[in-house]
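Methods — Computational structure assignment.
A single polypeptide chain was analysed. Its primary sequence is given first, followed by the predicted tertiary structure written as structure tokens.
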Amino acid sequence: MLHSPRLTQLALSIALAVGAPLATAAEPAKAAAVPATEVTAKAPLPLEELRTFAEVLDRIKAAYVEPVDDKTLLENAIKGMLSNLDPHSAYLGPEDFQELQESTSGEFGGLGIEVGQEDGFIKVVSPIDDTPASRAGVQAGDLIVKINGAPTRGQTMTEAVDKMRGKVGEKITLTLVRDGGNPFDVNLTRAVIQVKSVKSQLLENDYGYIRITQFQVKTGDEVGKALAKLRKDNGKKLRGVVLDLRNNPGGVLQSAVEVADHFLTKGLIVYTKGRIANSELRFSADPADASAGVPLVVLINGGSASASEIVAGALQDQKRAVLMGTDSFGKGSVQTVLPLANDRALKLTTALYYTPNGRSIQAQGIVPDIEVRPAKLTAEADTENFKEADLQGHLGNGNGGADRPTGSSKRKERPQDDDFQLSQALSLLKGLNITKGD
């Protein structure tokens, strides 16, 4: 999926607001403060090339098989100009610009439903808590058969999602079928939906897991809260954390810096180099340590790009974490979002970023300290026979411990049971603690 043009244009961007210390696509207007004279010295206009451009425009308008208006031709010319610079520079129309802003902010006008597709219908996977959908009683498993009276059968999931999203405060009617019963209507009002980019849980006692799906504006805060919650749920200091950046396409530069800073107490995190002074930035860690120095393993793979590589590279260079998995994507460039008139924008590559040791990740990626390729885990059938504790009249434990007969060690399914790379990361953390004597 990383190679699709849409993801290349949108999800992999690091929106660096030129002239401001915060790198975020949610505040693109700050980028407009850079005068053109700072970018290039004044040069005479290439009159011959401009005459050629005007001639081509005139010939297309006169001779193309169908009429084409000036606006369409000029927009296509702009798109071509940007697309031939590098894979990540792009002209963003209103929809693409809005999508980029929603993607990096994690907020959009909608109903709060995670959906999938089943037998040609749109199916509710889960309503998000405290959203219009959950308050209206929408349930997991409901089939959405109509949106505002229009049947959903035959629509793609993207088309259906686009219809359910919209302006905050607007009303919408969904027709649902539950458990094979009769269709019924649910009237909802769109609200601001916040999508969290961070998920966390205890893998088992003393060992936490944090998964970052994308670097949004609030991701740094969310990771800080996740670390605090893991410590609270564990009831004592953690002995290890797995930070999962696999298939994370990147996002906001400032959030990547904040996430790395949660695990570092000193030193450089990342720096950028570009042609204009405002694009040369350096970010360093502050002394606060939200992670409390917990042993750390970071999982990466070929889908870990951009901001993910900033975090992984900083933690690797600073010897703060062990990187495990496979080589990352290799996107080491920074994009500036420059807003234009009529809700349009340019996304322009303006700098390269470097890890603390001066490594450019561009087109090379991050190489993990320990390569662990994905593998399918298949649980073997239980071949246990009798144990001593199963024998009638067996002696008790000499230290007074409880008996452990066959079947006493069965446990609930855990994420690491079906994820080979995650299970290896957890084993590494346990091994580090054993050798430390903790």
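Note: The mean pLDDT is 86.
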